[in-house]
Each structure stands twice: as structure tokens, then as C-alpha cells.
From TrEMBL:
Record-annotated 4Fe-4S ferredoxin-type domain positions: 1-29, 31-64
Keyword Transferase (UniProt): no
InterPro entries: 4Fe4S_Fe-S-bd (IPR017896), 4Fe4S_Fe_S_CS (IPR017900), PSI_iron-sulfur_center (IPR050157), YfhL-like (IPR047927)
SUPFAM superfamilies membership: 4Fe-4S ferredoxins
Keyword Transport applies: no
PROSITE patterns: 4FE4S_FER_1 (PS00198), 4FE4S_FER_2 (PS51379)
Listed PANTHER family: PHOTOSYSTEM I IRON-SULFUR CENTER, PHOTOSYSTEM I IRON-SULFUR CENTER-RELATED
Protein known as: 4Fe-4S cluster-containing protein YfhL
Organism: Methylocaldum szegediense
Amino acid sequence: MALIITDECINCDVCEPECPNGAISQGEEIYEINPSLCTECVGHFDTPQCMEVCPVDCIQKDPDYVEDRDSLYEKYLALTKGSGAA
């Protein structure tokens, strides 16, 4: 499942640089996660790095984008194809 940033976000800027897929960007009001780029850090780390650094715990699993670990890994492979990251 992709992750989502809730409206409790305080725009502290710590999550964006932690995302290895570039899935996090500043939205109109708060940071947003692009579900097509989010792999919950599968393939890069054991845990989602944005969740690890978020000081207000406003990042959670997005129920609109249900994916299992295998699907997330396949997305990781597709995103890193040709980059030498795999």
C-alpha cells in the first residue's frame, strides 16, 4: 500500500529528502505522496523512512492504494530499472 500524509502535517520538511523514490513533494498546503512512486521504501530500506523521521506521526498507509510487499517490490524494480539500484 502506498503511504499518505494527513492534514496533521506541519510542513517541517524532514520527510521529502528521506524518500529514495522522490515520491514526496510539497503540495498546496501540506506535503503529498505520489502513490505511483511510493514503495514504502521496499527495495531500499526495511521501514518507510518518511515515517521514521516524521515528528508528528502524520504519515500512514493509504487505504485507497492497497499493495502487498511483493507488489511494492515489483514497483521498486520498475522504478529503478536501468538505474543500477536493484
